[in-house]
Write a structure and sequence with these properties.
Helix content is 48%, strand content 16%. By secondary structure, the chain is α/β, with parallel strands linked by helices. β1, α1 and β2 form a beta-alpha-beta unit. Bound molecules: nicotinamide-adenine-dinucleotide, 6-O-phosphono-alpha-D-glucopyranose (G6P) and manganese (II) ion. Nicotinamide-adenine-dinucleotide (NAD) binds next to α2, α4 and α5. It holds the Pfam family Glyco_hydro_4. GO terms for molecular function: hydrolase activity, hydrolyzing O-glycosyl compounds; metal ion binding; oxidoreductase activity, acting on the CH-OH group of donors, NAD or NADP as acceptor.
Length: 443
């Protein structure tokens, strides 16, 4: 059986150890001969790589491991690029979240002005990874979950139309796990779903068990009362911080707006942006929570492994819910035709929506990549919201490609989270200042 070679781009990510542990746990399904780490920040990657070298040696000594900042070494002889980079690191995430709050506007990593700001930084970084992959391993596939996935996906569609990149998100997977638990199923794999939207902006329309029985009434009954909160919170979830608990329970109010469908949690930032502002502490946002929480924990544990010379006793956990990445790699490698939610060009999957929009819909995945499944015609409410949001995303990519101040101002003005063009302009000028060296020059 063929064994695969993988490069993890963004080797220094807080998610890397959990993903490595997940890959090691899945070797029977997805055999690996080589794991490489690539990052453009040697210092940061080294902490994670030194620990992962020990983890791999202890559990799968046959796997060749290397960690590098040299693109040629990283991208040569690989079958899959698993990409999760964060251009500008948490320091810039913190600014994305705090600057809008100064103007009374939502400050969020991927939604509203914060997401636009992050998108303007990410596009160049992800395009660079694609170019390295195409130069050094032209047959490889990139499975990308670098955020903001909606804007990154639109940029790759427009600027690298023939590239073998698939953009994915773990939020629907995470919510589906919660739905399954809420109604007493053992896993989301016991459900077949219909869903449509943009990334971090979508709705479930139909959920059935494997025999075809409708599960929507049961799930709706739970969501109507508790949102996606569960009595017993799942242990492995990365999403157990208080801010995530609020997000899961808020789904109740999102559901109330359209009880025909079940909402993605991220819609709270578009349907209740003022509430998000009121609940935010402008001195201490999610970026601070992550730096003080996940980042400290992961880097601390990695340093401990290195100091002890062994991973025994480490509290690093398998990122179980990231195993959908293995499902995706297997679908391509073994032509499994697994049904998965992915971010793909619409091309008619949502019948009454822009054909060139990057939408999130169920796809059948095989050796040629994803084949989107038609989700039909969508109602006016969702269509209206999605048209506004997709225009924001497309304007950001046009602004990046053309260096257009005007288009980025329009993008911010159009975002449902920004009250008017005047605030949008003030915000834009502050974000330009903060992103010097990361954004292209705008004129
Ligand atoms: P992190 O800052 O811990 O890690 C990101 C790493 O990327 C850093 O080590 C950084 O040095 C590296 N990097 C930055 N720019 C780079 C470039 N141009 N080339 C190579 N490496 C580069 O961040 P994190 O919180 O672990 O998140 C990583 C990414 O994964 C983020 O984009 C995050 O939004 C994304 N993410 C996405 C999903 C999803 O659903 N799609 C889920 C979880 C995380
Ligand atoms: C979910 C989303 C990701 C996002 C992450 C943020 O998993 O799908 O796109 O990156 O949440 O989590 P964090 O813990 O970094 O706030
Ligand atoms: Mn996501």
């Amino acid at each position: 059986m063929k064994k695969f070679s993988i490069v993890i781009a963004g080797g220094g990510s807080t998610f890397t150890p959990g993903i490595v542990l997940m890959l090691l746990d899945n070797l029977e399904r997805f055999p690996i001969r080589q794991i490489k780490f690539y990052d453009n920040l040697d210092e940061r990657q080294k902490h994670i790589a030194d620990a992962c070298r020990i983890i791999i040696k202890e559990s799968a000594p046959d796997i060749h491991f290397l960690s590098t900042t040299d693109p040629k070494e990283a991208f040569t002889d690989v079958d899959f690029v698993m990409a999760h980079i964060r251009v500008g690191l948490y320091a810039m995430r913190e600014k994305d979240e705090k600057i809008p709050l100064n103007y009374g506007v939502l400050g969020q990593e991927t939604c509203g002005p914060g997401g636009i700001s992050y998108g303007m930084r990410s596009i160049g970084g992800v395009l660079e990874l694609i170019d390295y992959m195409e130069q050094y391993s032209p047959n490889a596939w990139m499975l990308n979950y670098s955020n903001p996935a909606a804007i990154v996906a639109e940029a790759t569609r427009k600027l690298r139309p023939n590239s073998k990149i698939i953009n994915i998100c773990d939020m629907p997977v995470g919510i589906e796990e919660r739905m399954a638990k809420a109604i007493g199923l053992s896993s989301r794999k016991e459900m077949v779903v219909r869903y449509y939207g943009l990334n971090h902006f979508g709705w479930w329309t139909d959920i059935r068990d494997l025999e075809g029985n409708d599960l929507m009434p049961q799930i709706k009954a739970h969501v109507g009362k508790h949102g996606y909160s569960l009595k017993e919170e799942m242990e492995e979830s990365q999403h157990t911080d208080a801010s995530w608990m609020d997000t899961f329970s808020k789904a109740k109010d999102l559901y109330a707006v359209d009880p025909d469908t079940l909402p993605n949690t991220y819609l709270k930032y578009y349907l209740y942006p003022q509430e998000a502002v009121e609940h935010a502490n402008p001195e201490y946002t999610r970026a601070n929570e992550v730096m003080d929480g996940r980042e400290k924990h992961v880097f601390g544990e990695c340093d401990k492994i290195v100091a002890n010379g062994t991973a025994k006793g480490s509290s690093l956990e398998i990122d179980e819910h990231a195993s959908y990445i293995v499902d995706l790699a297997r679908a391509i490698a073994y032509n499994t035709h697994e049904r998965m939610l992915l971010i793909v060009e619409n091309k008619g999957a949502i019948v009454n929506f822009d054909e060139t929009a990057m939408v999130e819909v169920p796809c059948i995945v095989g050796v040629n990549g994803p084949e989107p499944l038609v989700q039909g015609t969508i109602p006016r409410f969702q269509k209206g919201m999605m048209e506004q949001q997709v225009a924001v995303e497309k304007l950001v990519v046009e602004a990046w490609a053309e260096g257009s101040y005007q288009k980025l101002w329009q993008a911010l003005t159009l975002s449902k989270t920004v009250p008017n063009a005047g605030v949008a302009k003030e915000l834009l000028d502050a974000l330009i200042e903060a992103n010097k060296g990361f954004w292209p020059e705008l004129s």
